[in-house]
Amino acid sequence: MANNAELIKQCEQAAKVWLGPSFDEETRKEVQAMLDNEDKSALIDAFYQNLEFGTGGLRGIMGAGTNRMNKYIVGMATQGFANYILKAFPGKQCAVVVGHDCRNNGRLFAETVANIFSANGIKVYLFESLRPTPEISFAIRQLGCQAGVNVTASHNPREYNGYKAYWDDGAQVLAPHDKGIIDEVNKVTIDDVKFEGDKDLIIPIGGEMDWDYIQAVKEAMVDQEVILRQKDLNIVYSPMHGTGRVIIPMALRSWGFQNIHVVPEQMVIDGNFPTVVSPNPENAEAMTLGMKLGTKLNADLVIASDPDADRLAIVCRNPKGEWEILNGNQTCMMFSWYIIANKKKLGQLKGNEFLVKTIVTTEVIAEIAKKNGVELRDCYTGFKWIANEIRISEGVKKYIGGGEESFGFLPFDKVRDKDSPASICLICEIAAWARDNGKTLYDLLMDIYAEYGFSREVTINVVRPGKTGADEIKQMMSDFRSNPPQQLGGSKVVLWKDYKTLEARHADGTVEKLNMPDTSNVLQWFCEDGTKVSVRPSGTEPKIKFYTEVKDPSFKCAGCYERCMAAAEKKIAAIKKDLKLE
Fold first, then answer.
1. SS3 for 185?
2. What is the C-alpha separation between 243 and 84, in angstroms, rounded?
3. Burial class, 20, CB count within 10 angstroms (exposed 0-12 / middle 13-18 / buried 19+)
4. Whether the Cβ atoms of residue 75 and residue 44 lie closer than 8 Å to each other
5. Each residue's pLDDT tens digit, 199-224
6. How, if at all, do strands 323-325 and 353-358 pair?
7. Catalytic: 534?
8. What confidence score (pLDDT) does residue 469 get?
9. Separation between Cα atoms, residue 496 and residue 526, nearest integer Å
10. Strands, DSSP E only, in 276-361?
11. CA 392 to chain centre
């Protein structure tokens, strides 16, 4: 109780600072209401810590407080970022790109960011209205800017907003810049922030950049001839109330597709996301309206992008004519197979190409690359790491694709983040190729399993909000390190990897160093039967994630799918029990 009393006292002291003249009347009223409330839970959640400017920027629930997304936290982050940019490029007229998605307060935060950068003498290319995350990345490269900011919380629930920081290669910041920016942000107080912008340094951009971006997206096309033969592919698309609503149908038409239908209810720009519980393409519920329209129009496939249009979801028909939602591992696997197989068939592979996947993504992709003689690289979760692989090999080796299990893929190198416009165009090309060969996307998936091996991947999210939740997640990781599992789902663990210490320990006691560019708070366990379990706290949400992958070598054809899926689900349930997640 004493500890709780001390915490309340600390939060009250922090909150009283927000009653000062540096904050507007609306903010002061919200803070005063928290102070006056006998229930101090809201006060604690809003002030128990500073919303951390991490390696990817900021993300949090909107509202007043040091642990919330608001114009003051955004302002201090931007002032620190501006200070770092000016130190990193001394004597240069620096420029940045600023964009935002459809979320509530998105335009307010973006204009706040633009004003602060310009007040510090930095030229700002400000998108005139909401735009996809990948277009922000593209614009940084296209305009030769030193950095960029996108105001977005991606697929998080409606209460959230966020702030993604980009560097001059169009990728989210990595070392040493990430730590340098964080250091500068942590030095800033509210009185240091230059909120009054220089309008002469703020340049609106829009349509011309859209055109350049759409032309660049066409570079992801593998086989235009198959699109011309199947241009009437029946496509249903939803932007999930977000930024893909104009760009993606336009990009599809630029590739040659002519039979595109949109989900009208979800074409409405709305940061409250009224038609879904959460605008996350990983959630089947979010695809309900799209599938309903797809059934009505007898569509070949249903596709969607999340609010900032970096992730995509794909729904295809199974042999019974029912809709089957593909998971992120399956889509990543399908992209990888198609790019390799058809570039090889068309003579587009020269022998210096490489693919990238994250360490938590399915190992079937490794088999596809290995059997076809294409280099595959593993990296940490997050597209900044995939972008890093592109950067270090630029001009030496050719990047042909990269993705992660969380519904993100990048099929070309003009962008350095997840790109749903390009990926959606490419999956429609893959569907056209399948139809051209008398198949569906589902049939193609079964063919890939039959040739390269079946696996079932399920991500288990354990949500623990607030300070107590953060402490619990920290303790869970500590317990797993001190007492790692010896068996999972009835199979012996034979390899333990800890990316925090960069050590891999084998069952025979041998230890080897993991060759990674940095450390990360991730654990992985590999079993005799091919099972892989990865554990990591989310960097953007109050949850710890368990990525499970189980194999079944008995898969021979599509008729095995339901049996293998049922066996895999049984094994994953046993793994959950072993890890005490039930």
1. helix
2. 30
3. exposed
4. no
5. 999 999 999 999 999 999 999 999 99
6. unpaired
7. no
8. 85
9. 7
10. 301-305, 312-317, 323-325, 353-358
11. 21
**What span, in angstroms and rounded, lies between the C-alpha atoms of 554 and 571?**
15
CB atoms within 10 A of CB 191: 7
Q: CB–CB of 523/477 below 8 Å? A: yes
384 vs 415: CA distance, rounded Å: 11
Per the CB < 8 A criterion, the answer to whether 552 and 456 are in contact is yes
**Structure confidence at residue 2 as a pLDDT band (50, 70, 90):** very low
Tokens standing for residue 47: 């002030």
As a whole number of angstroms, the distance between CA 185 and CA 53 comes to: 7
Cα gap 233→461, rounded to integer Å = 36
User: What is the pLDDT averaged over residues 248-270?
Assistant: 98
pTM for the structure as a whole: 0.94
Helix (H, G, I), strand (E, B) or coil at 381: coil
Classify residue 549 by burial, with Cβ atoms within 10 Å: 0-12, 13-18, 19+: buried
Say if residues 263 and 238 touch (Cβ distance below 8 Å): yes
Residue pair 356/402 in contact (Cβ under 8 Å)? The answer is: yes
For residues 200 and 72, what is the distance between their CA atoms, to the nearest angstrom? 23
| 449: CB partners within 8 A, 6+ apart | 364, 555, 561
Catalytic residue among 118, 137, 154, 305: 154
